[in-house]
Amino acid sequence: MAGNRNPSKGHSRRGVVISHLNRRMRNGRSMSPRLSSSSGTRSSSPGPTTGSSSPLRGRSREPSRRADNDSEGVPSDEEQDTSIDNISDDYLSFKGRIFGRFRLMWEDLRPIVEEGMLLDAGKQLRRRRWVSEYKDLVALAHLVPDLVLDIGEGGLHHVTGELDQARSKARAADVGTMKQHVHRWRDFVPPIDAVDSRHRLGFHNMTTGYLLCPCDLNWNDLSIQKSLQEGTRKVQPKDFPLFLWKSERVSATDFFDGFMQGDMILKAFLHIFIGPSAAHSSASGRSTRKGNAALHGIRTVSIYSIAYAATIFRFVISDQSVLSQGGSGKGRWPYKEFYDALVNAMKDMEDDDLADLLDWWQDTVFGGLEEEAEDEDHGVTSVAARMRAQAADKKARKAASAAAAAASES
User: What are phi and psi of 183, to 5 degrees?
Assistant: First the structure.
């Protein structure tokens, strides 16, 4: 991941965190804006509100770039300064977006950052719940602890609030752009377009219904179709849909065979991390503009990013109106539970099987990028590089043809 920790003013980042935290605690000040440790009462300092000036305002701004599948411009990772003295106003938005896509789609970040900073300060905690999440956040956005301390009172609330808002915007952006392109990924019956009404999707469309149908049910059974369309059969988050499997074929004796290798997940991943144009052909690394992975220097795949792509795609082809974590309201399907179930299912895999799955994703999505970069260093596109591109295109066409044939036989 991008964002190496660099020394600043003679102290390591960890040293700065510890010294500032200990100083604040000795003075009786809490990291949280909600409670004052000296009095036990609520702090009078409000958190950031809509339209208020950011504590980052006034710092020098860095130029921004726009990803071809993002709705807002963000600076590329190499443009981010390693010191908070010259930090961009976009830093937290930029980092929050990729953290949500690559590592943690939901979950409140405030307790994660607070717990991690307490551990950084050497505090002993009876319960360590968010250690790995905090480490991954700091690996991707190493200035987060420094910003919390630099802002002062309310810093934890402001920084985590900005990161959470950025994740929400990323989800909205990915949903919006995928809605505009998903109709190009395969033949839908009846056909759908970029502005199709939600009520014509989900189980009310033969193709999206087939893709969303729980893998242990037969979509071609008209009684199954009717029960799903009328809602008499409720689909739960752990009723994994058929589109998760390679060639949309499931083995009841080995559910892990082809799991999370579905063509639609691959296209969704390419759309989000490489660019919409890459998803149209499923050719790895092919996009006319920098996507989110390139902007952040990411050349690996995580189980969380695979689950993220699958979750966004499931919502886009559904008839639900809100991509929600869950709740009792109409149309509020528990997508967080679905996302968590996918992550946990991959974690449950045998080590060798999970390694094979991640290798497949790595080779499919990023396999040609390093060789392509080496060719570009020489200022030419070699014959070998063009042959690799042709081979990748042939494999993509063959896989798409096989998937279409399997779907027509079902």
Answer: -70, -10
